[in-house]
Amino acid sequence: MAGSIRIRARLSGDVAEVKALMRHPMETGRRKDSAGNTIPAHFITEVTATSAGKTVLQAQWGAAVSQNPFLSFRIKGAKAGDTVQVQWLDNKGETGVGEATIK
Amino acid sequence: MNRNRRGFLKLAGAAAALSMLPLKVLADFVRPKEAMAATDLKGVFASLGNAQDSDQIRLETPDIAENGAVVPVTVSSAIPGTSKIYLLVEDNPNPLAAAYMIPEGTEAFVQTRVKVAQTCPIYAVVEAGGKLYKTSRETKVTLGGCGG
Amino acid sequence: MLAKSGIAALLRGLSVCSLLFSIAANAQDDPFAEYHEMMGDDNPAIFVIEEGAELWAKPQGPKQASLEQCDLGLGAGVVKGAYAQLPSYFADTKQVMDLEGRLIYCMESLQGRDRADILRKPYSSTGDMGTELEALASYIADQSMGMPIATPQNHPAERAAYAMGEQLFFYRAGPYDFSCATCHRQSDKRIRLQNLPNLTVSAGAGSAYSTWPAYRISQGLVRTMGWRMQNCAKQQRLPQLLPGSEAVVALIEYMSVNGTGTEMAAPGLKR
To answer: Which one of B45, B103, B120, C241 is least enclosed by Cβ atoms within 10 Å?
Structure first.
C-alpha cells in the first residue's frame, strides 16, 4: 500500500537510528468482529530494510506483533543523505514499502 | 464509504512506484516456521536450540503495560557476533513473536511492540557465534479504564 | 429467563465499571508513565490524518464536490485553527455545532449526500480500518495542534449549550443511576489503574479535551470526541447518542469551555 510505512532516520555520530511505523491490521485470526464472526488472520510475515545497497535488517514476524507495527533499529557507518528503504510482505501476499533519507 | 476499496485503488496506483523494488522474496533470512508454530516455550527452544542465561543482553519492557495489545520491547546485545534476536512472550498462543537477522554493520539492537495476552515473562534470545543466549523480564498487563 | 438475563447483565455491568468505580483508589503517580515514555511519540494516527486530508479534498456525493468549501467557523475552507474554536454557533443553521455535526452538515449541503446514509456507520467497529468521519476529524484536529482551546461563549445559543451540557453532565439516569459526574467530578481518582479526568475543572477538562480525537491503542483506531461521548453514554447504559446531536454538542461544549486555554494535542495516543 502506498504510504503504508512512515520512516524517520536520524544520524547521531555515524549511527543512524531508523524508526518505522507501518499501517497494518496484524489480525491474529483469533478475534471476532461485532457480529461474532472470526476475523481472518492477516499479518505481516517479513520485513526487510535496506540502505546504501545493503540489507540492514530482516525480520520474521508472527501475528503477535502489534497492530500498526513499530520497528526501530540502528545502522552503523551511516551517512547523511543515504536512503533507507523498508518493505513488508504479509500472509496474503500484499506488500508495503517506504523510504526515507537519513538526516 | 468502502475503505477497503480505497486501499485497493491506492495499492494499484502505487504499482508504478513499487516496480523499481524487488517485490518477491523479501528476506533470505529463512522463517523459523517450526519455532513460530510452537505453542509453548519448550517447543520454541526445542526448535531453536537451548539458550543459556546471559547478563549481556539488555531487555527493556515496562513493568506495567497500559494495554496488552501494544507492549513496547527494546532488546540490545553486548555479545560479540550477535546475528539474530528473537522475542518470545511466554503465555501467548505462539510464544515466538518476532525474529530479527542483524547483518554486520547493524547494531545488535531492535525496538518493537508486541501483543502480550496476559501477565507473563517476555524473553529475548540472542544468537551469536552459533550459540543461543537468553534473558527475561515480566511485564504486567492491565485492562484499561472502563470496558476495555 | 428474563430475570436470569437481567442478573447476568447486572453482573456484567458490575464487572465492567460500577464496582470498579466504587473501589477506585486515589491516584498517586501515573502507573503508566514508564509505558508512555517507552511508547514515545510515534502515533499511528499520522496515517489517519493523511487519509483525512485526502478525503477533505476528494469530490464525493451527487454534487461531486469536495469539502474544501466547508465553513468550520473561521470562513469557508479555513481548517487551520478551526477545531480549537469548536463547537460554535453557525448563523446558516442557527445552531451550535461541533466538528462532527458540522462535517455531516457540509456533506449534506455541499456534496448532496443523504444524512441517514452518512449516519449509518459514523464510527468503526472492531476490526475496521477507520471511517470517513474519523479520518476527517483527525485531519482537522491536527490542524489545531498547539493552539489553545478557545470555544466561544459569545452567542446566547453557545451559553445555552454550555448550560445544557452542565445539566446533562450531572444528570443521573439509566439502570445504574449514573451520571457523567459519577466518574468525572473528582480529581485524583481512577478506574483500575486508569486516571479519571475531573471534567469540572480546567486542568482535567483541558487535558482530556485537548487529546481527542485519539488513537486508541487497544482498538487500533482513531476515536473521535463524539465517539467518546457515545461510548460513555453506553457505559452508563443510556440510549445511543448520535454524532452532532444536541446532547453530544452540549456535553462537548461543557467540556471544551471548561478546558479553555489548554493547548490542543490531538490526535492523542491513548490506551
So the answer is: B103
